[in-house]
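Supplementary Note 3. Input sequence used for the single-chain structure prediction.
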Amino acid sequence: MKPSEFFNTDNPLTPGQIGFFEDNGYLLLKNYLTPNICRELRDQANRLIAEFEPDSAISIFSTKNQTDTSDSYFLQSGDKIRFFFEEDAFSPDGKLKQSKAKSINKIGHALHDLNPLFREFSYHPQFAEILTALGVQSPLLAQSMYIFKQPGIGGEVSCHQDSTFLYTDPLSVIGLWFALEDATVENGCLWAIPGAHQSGLKSRFLRITGEKTNFEIYDKSEWSSDELVPLEASQGTLVLLHGSLPHYSKANFSSQSRHAYTIHVIDGVCSYPENNWLQRPQEMPFRGF
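The predicted structure, written as discrete structure tokens, is reproduced below.
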């Protein structure tokens, strides 16, 4: 696809937008993507699900008991395209309550390297320009996720910081979250605490012995739910998220899905520890733009 089919604008970030991101930890760029690329990415994700044949390695994504649900299928997905079901997708007898296409929580975590369309989109140099403007010296694409937020069963994602899961020293991760459908309060849009990215990292999600994980806690205090604000995003909006920004999304009890695609970028000048959960083999390192 031509770059003009991806974006409605090629304007760089303004000083005012950069200042807003630095102060608040997020920035919404509305009408950033064209309807065409939103449709193409949705169609591609649906084709991948249609080709996916679940076997004994069924994995359920949940943020409620992450150390318990982080199985080998999840932990070995850093260099693969894998499919994770909604927590409420199955009945007590182990059968899907509804169709496979309406039961997947997300696809992760290497769409950006292994699928031609997602690769072409994810590595567009326009994203590198945005990241450079935000202070990233050597942007490397670490992971990607296609998130469905299925109607009726799309689960809550608890309040978290992306640097908890993609830790670097010093901290550097930035998330690019693309609304491929309208994200509203009703269908589970993002919520965030403006400015709370300046309060430090509360925990790290570590890969420990074998294929076990654990949270290393630095601050046991809870984020104030009263300070959360909704980041409603119409289709085509790009939401930039600082790695230390607390954010979450509520369950989707509406009849409307909330498809989104997200990539997480780290700075190559920073150290990426071997006990981060997401690891890649030497023959498939993180790549720059």
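The helical segments are 15-24, 35-51, 66-69, 72-75, 111-114, 116-122, 125-133. The mean pLDDT is 93.
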